[in-house]
Amino acid sequence: MALKALDIYKILPKKNCKECGEPTCLTFAMKLASGKGDVNLCPYLDAEARELLGASTKPPVAKVTIGVGERSVTIGEETVFFRHEKTFVHPPGIFFEVSDLDSDEAIHAVATRVFSESFVRIGQSLQWSGLAVRCRSQSPERYAAVVDSIEKKGYHLPLVLVADTPALLEAALPRAGQFRPLLHAARQDTANEMSTLARNYGCPLVVADPDHDRLLSLATRSEGAIGQDLLLDASPATLRELLVSSSRIRMEAISRVPGAGYPLYVDAGGIEGTISAVLLAVLKFGGVIVTPPLDAASARAALTLRQNIYTDPQRPIQMSPGLYRLGNPGPDSPVFLTVNFSLTYFTLTSYLEATGEPCYLLLADTEGLSVLTAVASGKLSETTVKEAVQKAGLENVVSHRTLIIPGYAAPLSGKIEDATGWKVLVGPRDAAEVGEFLEKEWHS
Amino acid sequence: MTTLGQWEGSIVKVTIGATPADGGTRRATCTIGGDRDLPLLGEPGNLSTIPKIAFDVCDDPALWPEVLRLTMGDELGDPAAMAARAEREMGADLVRLNLTSTRRKGFSDFPAIRKTIEDVLSATGLPLIIEGSADPAIDSEVFQQCGEAAEGENVLLGTAEADRYRSVAAAAVAYRHGVIAQSPIDANLAKQLNILLREVGVSQDRIVIDPYTGALGYGLEYSYSVMERIRYAALKGDQDLSSPMISASPDALTIKEVREGSIQQRYETGCTWEYTTALAAIVAGAAIVVVRHPGTVPLLKDAIAGLTRGRGG
Ligand code: SF4
Predict the structure, then answer these.
(1) Among A301, A312, B56, B226, which lies 20 to 30 A Cα-Cα from B108?
(2) Atom from ligand 1 closest to the CA of residue A23
(3) Does domain A5-57 bear CATH number 1.10.15.40?
(4) What is the CATH number of domain A322-442?
(5) Residue B2 above 50 pLDDT?
(6) Cα separation of B151 and A42, whole Å?
């Protein structure tokens, strides 16, 4: 159970000396209770108190790293159930699965894709995390050879080694063990041998059991043998089981139920509705998600969803008002005026970018209201537009004197012209039509 | 919060549609809400209700996503035909009739929307959602027409917003329909609008919250959490947020990713994009998801089946 601020306070030295950077021991206790403080900042704690507090104030989900070097993947360290409480910390690793029964050609095609495919979205490059290599041949030689050929190509990708028996993993580990692959999986009957392998090679280990209680007790047992380098596989077979098991484990992790505080391993390929399982695992606490290679459309959607879920949902819904440049606009480029509601901004920029026309986007301060509501409530008016034009120093930016306003703001065009001295061109109501508008109205 | 399934509050039940027994002509009604747990976590059919799919049809395809205009042909502008397809081929639970014709500059052909509503009502036996105008200047006339044309059918009328809710609410109260209350991705604004609507006589069991759904990659990151917050607040006992939610993402088929590549690729990407957005909304607590791509409905049906069926079920 997480300690409450007052329980923590009782353990602290109560010197109120401020050396921890907090004004009093009590505020330090509150910080620790919220999971944000660092116990080591108080120099007056004895070893026992430090350990007690350290264990109860560290993130409820353990941190695990898979792979080494630039492409290594770190997961865990999560502290909450809902992302509106606190931004989720580490996005899940998504691993494409290959099998040792596939041809070498097919395996390397997937490896190359995982290595090189990336999508750039809002300044971030979105990539696949690594390869899951499943042993289906049941032949230690074949499995070792496949793992060896992957490592020899020098992709330096994190691997998940998936095999039914410790003997199969043992065959592959001499080729890959030094790169911290994730081992799948320790089950009730193989837990001891698997733990020994994981310990010998210093690799993280997945423990698997479809029964919740047995899974957690297996994790607690393995913890004794190898420490906190663990993931949990609840082996769901349906989307419902995935949702229920993931939610329950995350909640129990936050409540510090023994054995629950580890990232989740999700084998989406083993769930009916694989693509949906990938998406659901991204939404609901997945740590490592293994899936057959995704088609182009699903691939992009999954990576975009992961980016969305792991951003800060508290980020203001308003854009800061002012002038934005799309492409590389010059003095002749069109100026689109709109509101500072961020969705309006995203939608309009997406359509404007699609036209390929460099332009300016001037956001008036409508306190984040959409065009319709801003017009109706007077937040988008000749006054706010005039202010936006002046603040941006627009007359020094472009050589023309034309503002394009949103279609729904048409009733304001006369007033805006009078107040600003700029000519107003009424744009389309729907952002989807800006391309056509530019062609028909701006260029003519 | 330490355990699943122990909450003070629950989601209000809202019924859409009316069968002949209730004075309407619908084949069946559609009830949403009633949940007493986080989305889909409770026992299906008891603590958790099963999410519903509404297929979106329009009376003027000019404002409909290009990817559908390029692939679906003339049928797209025939809402009655599309509504019939939604029911028979796709297996949707509801039809949303989007009166896009009213978005044209200077729209005034009010008798035409009446006829459209009547045509759609006779083409399908599914409960109806009607999305009216978005222009305060004609709202009153449009919603009056919608309310009257659908009288007895207990439709859901959209959309009320904080600055323009009176016309929709008046039509809903006068002709006994439900109301969609849309607020821009903000739980507090959703709460306020709920209160405003009740003040003008809309009862709680006729309000459905639309927290506005930004498309995947274009605002979903906010919408997802606002839906989670609203659901959580309702379960904690906040009456003003305890209405069930509807999610529609008008941009899911028009964002940049769906405008790139061959028409076939665009059609597929659009479907995936809309599906991913809707699935996230369901997981966050939406009781109804509204979609426009014909391919999205079967995908959602499969996912909803998977999400509500246990091992061996
Ligand atoms: S350093 Fe330790 S003793 Fe000093 S104020 Fe902080 S918690 Fe209290």
Answers:
(1) B56
(2) 5
(3) yes
(4) 3.40.50.11600
(5) no
(6) 70
